[in-house]
Amino acid sequence: xxxxxxxVLPAGIPWVLxxxxxxVDGRKRWVGLVGAAGLAASLAxxxxxxxxxxxxxxxxxxxxxxxxxxxxSLRADALGVxxxxxxxxxxxxxxxxxxxxxxxxxxxxxxxLLVAAGLTGLxxxxxxxxxxxxxxxxxxxxxxxxxxxxxxxxxRAAFIFAVVNLLGxxxxxxxxxxxxxxxxxxxxxxxxSRTDALDPRSVIVVAAVIFAAFCLKLGLFPFHFWxxxxxxxxxxxxxxxxxxxxxxxxxxxxxxxxxxxxxxELAYGSVAVMVLGTASIVYGAxxxxxxxxxxxxxxxxxxxxxxxxxxxxxxxxxxxxxAAVLYSVVNSLNKGVVFLAAGLRGPLVGAAFAVGAFxxxxxxxxxxxxxxxxxxxxxxxxxxxxxxxxxxxLIFAGSALSFLYSFQVYQRRFLAPQDGEKPGPLAARLVxxxxxxxxxxxxxxxxxxxxxxxxxxxxxxxxxG
Amino acid sequence: MTVYAALVVAVIFASGTFLLLQRxxxxxxxGIILVSNSAVLFIIxxxxxxxxxxxxxxxxxxxxxxxxxxxALTALVIxxxxxxxxxxxxxxxxxxxxxxxxxxxxxxxxxEAEALERTDDPEREEVPxxxxxxxxxxx
Lengths: 465, 139
Fold this sequence. Notes:
The structure holds two protein chains of two kinds. Chain A contains 20 helices and two strands. Helices cover 79% and strands 2% of the residues of chain A. Chain B has one domain (2-50, 66-122): Helix Hairpins (Orthogonal Bundle), CATH 1.10.287. Chain B is built from five helices and no strands. Chain B is elongated and about 80 Å long. The N and C termini of chain B lie far apart (55 Å). The A-B interface holds A 27, 101-105, 129, 133, 136, 140, 143-144, 147, 150, 152-153, 155-156, 158-159, 162-163, 166-167, 170, 173-174, 177-178, 180-181, 186, 236, 343-345, 420-425 and B 20, 25, 28, 32, 35-36, 38-39, 42-43, 46-47, 67-68, 71, 74-75, 78, 81-82, 85-86, 89-90, 92-93, 96-97, 102, 105-106, 108-109, 112, 122, 127, 129-130, 132-136, 138-139.
């Protein structure tokens, strides 16, 4: 029973708090701090839930006391809690950062809380349609957030973001309806067991539809066109939330639906998945090198970085999925650090940005190295000799390119003399620094992260299929 | 029946997509509404079964599937809410630019940006740190 309550807390706390805070003026500092406290409580309950999941296995409860198979099930496994914890951590840092700078919209804290509630909800649900509903909660809140500050180009970017992602959501909804139509169930575990018995030709179409929808969220190469406009226009904390937390929906969705529910179809399409990942890495890195503006470079870098997740997913197997989870976690922390640091000036910020840049490039002291190594290992062990060698060359080249653009940006932004610019508020700089310290900590002591990712991959390879 | 339903869904989805590609933002919103409604029609046509109302199904008569109706209703509500949000954004752009044509809005923004560069106002730097410190002014 306590587990049943525990699983509701991570999404429930920010949700209720968002509804309450919507009535007060979010520009007041205490409102933002209350919101941050709610997110911290949600994060704490997630950490507790993670410990319970690692000790006792998947926690599951059916909402409303319905018998199993009738009601909507909430299910927390290692994969879900990992993604939820890292997303809430990035959102918490972004909210604290914005509170330190001074919130400009009365609705800002509740909207951020709603994004967090939707995200944790969709990571912790065991029902495909419930996944869609939570997904829409966080997406709708983020459509509004993208227009934060209401500069004209921001509102226009928010409109583009909303229209493109809505199209993606509709495509995903059609995929869910099709899954329901061919399997007769919305429960993820039931769908997974029933699709195995079906003719793969009928399932592969549905898999392609769902795959396209998540690639759109992730901003992968052929679906990336909306991403630079939105990330460049957004205010730094909003960009950090969009790319560090919301993009996790895409990575998680691909892992959950591709690796967990439709593994056979994923294996059929693995070549296509790897080609898309490769295209994304090359395109993102080349575009990022040719740009000058910090947020523009980081926006294109985001396109390149998700390519590695896709590569790991295409390689598949326990090691491939472990690498994909690990890389997603590290990537969302990277993005949080660089986007937040890009909006500030002054001492400490440069150091934080350097850690983020090291991490993106995969240089040892930062956590990005652990992620890159995991992808390397997966490519060598799981792939055949030729694809393994090709992938290693590709990853190496991609890392070299990302090293190049990261430090071009660092040089332009933080090494050049900046006269007349005041450093940002100390509190905001400390928030960025602590997020960067987290990246360093994971780089220096990666065992917990590797163990967690391994447990998450085990969920996909062992229990899902 | 399935063919007709598929045809209807296809036509609505296609017209929605066509409208999405227009420059006029209100048409884009209408396009999104059409596309999301085609998804609702798809849900209904893919899973609707004939039977008694599924309030209290008795064992001797088959009840229709309530889940499909619940999904369709949820999707409708979400589509409605998001359409309202999009219209609000379009209105916000209309009040500042007096037009809902995407290219005219972009052109107006370019002109503003150029004017800004000419005056080279230090207050309007990319990240107005000084402004951010003061924080609390109402918008």
